[in-house]
Amino acid sequence: MRLFLVALQFLTRLPVRLSRFEPAWLNDCVRHFPGVGMVVGAIGAVVLAGAALLWPAWIAAVLALAATVALTGGFHEDGLADTFDALGGVVPRDKALAIMKDSRIGSYGALALGLSLLLRAALLAVLAARPLPGAVAALLASHAFARAAAVGVMVSLPYGGDADHAKAKPLALAVAPRNFGIALAWCGLLALALGLLGIQPAHLLLAFAATAAVAWAMQRWLKRRLGGYTGDGLGATEQLAEIAVLLAFTASF
């Protein structure tokens, strides 16, 4: 529970208070990132379901997306924009890392962020116009599976930036494989719960496959360009995996 609260505090704007803090907890709390994703997805699903009673599906979708972005403070969206600014062009590794640290947003980042928000809103609008259980399942799965994908990238790569100047230094240290195993267990529990609620296994398997494809592609891209992961690269992984899961659910429902 303590590590879950650390993960919740790190990934969201929820008012979590801890009586004390150990830096090592931040490294171990990554095992609960999918659990935090379930919380974020659940809040988005409540907003989507409530808004769909009053407004058309596309308005409900935008409100649900806005709720999840507000809840996380645009944490992952910032990583997506920085990653595409840094790696969208052909620049050396050191230059790419410097671009990632720049608080300004460039054309590659703006395009990636805009298209990501537009595509997620469109996918949620399509799902919101269909039977509601599918939209709820998609929100829960996209946020949970996507954060597991980020943990998988962390486990498979070394830190690719300057560890001494990392914003969250404990996350620049090696992440134990057991943490990824627990992250996958979160996803397995969610899949089991959704299955018991009537979601077909084929939908979940397609979502798992889409998540794995994004994690594999991001692992190769970050390794080739930076020699490892960065916090921004993990944010980009999460965002792209969210889109992949929503695409999978939209195609299969």
Folded structure, characterized:
75% of the residues lie in helices and 0% in strands. By secondary structure, it is an all-alpha fold. The protein has one domain. The longest helix is centred in the last third of the chain and has 26 residues. The protein is globular, with a radius of gyration of 17 Å. The two termini are 35 Å apart. One of its GO terms (biological process) is cobalamin biosynthetic process. It is a multi-pass membrane protein. It catalyses: alpha-ribazole 5'-phosphate + adenosylcob(III)inamide-GDP = adenosylcob(III)alamin 5'-phosphate + GMP + H(+); alpha-ribazole + adenosylcob(III)inamide-GDP = adenosylcob(III)alamin + GMP + H(+). Belongs to the CobS family. This is Adenosylcobinamide-GDP ribazoletransferase.
Task: Describe, in short, the structure shown.
With 253 residues, the chain is mostly helical. It contains eleven helices and no strands. The protein has one domain.
Round the mean pLDDT to the nearest integer and report it: 92
> Count of DSSP E strands?
0
Overall morphology: globular
Largest sheet, described in full? none
What's the structural domain tally? 1
| Uncertain residue segments | none
| Helix-strand pattern | HHHHHHHHHHH
Number of helical stretches of at least 4 residues: 11
Helix content: over 70%
Question: Assembly state here?
Answer: single chain
Which structural category fits the helices and strands? mainly alpha
For the terminal residues, how far apart are their CA atoms? 35 Å
Beta percentage is under 5%
Rg on CA atoms, Å: 17 Å
